[in-house]
Amino acid sequence: MFGSKRLYRGQNPEMSKISPDKNSISVAIRFFKRQATIRIRKILPDFSWQSNYHDRIIRNEEELNRIREYIQMNPERWDEEKKRLVLE
Question: Which ranges constitute the DSSP H helices of the chain?
Fold first, then answer.
């Protein structure tokens, strides 16, 4: 044992120092995604989250509005991209 935590074969004791705090945003997001995945897969069994995404904390209302606009316009951009690819 290392400190008060039990270590298992191959586990690095230094990793316990950098693992997320149980009250951290990353733990909350992981919990949310897990619960959402369970519900979504009842309807869409092949559902999976997009890999290689970029997390970002939204720091003010201006940034929030810019992100909202991006999300709302994204389907249009996809349609435009599909049309462009067909024409090439």
Answer: 15-18, 25-43, 61-87
pLDDT digits (tens, 9 = 90+) for 32-69: 999 999 999 999 999 999 887 777 889 999 999 999 99
What is the Cα–Cα distance from 82 to 88, expressed in whole angstroms?
Answer: 10
1 pLDDT band, cuts 50/70/90, is very low
Side-chain-side CA neighbours of 34 within 13 Å: the count stands at 6
Residue 64 exposed, middle or buried by CB count within 10 Å (0-12, 13-18, 19+): exposed
User: What is the pTM (predicted TM-score) of this model?
Assistant: 0.44
Confirm if 17 and 2 have CB atoms less than 8 A apart: no
How far apart, in Å, are the Cα atoms of 71 and each of 48, 49, 68, 78, 83?
Answer: 19, 16, 5, 11, 20
CB atoms within 10 A of CB 7: 13
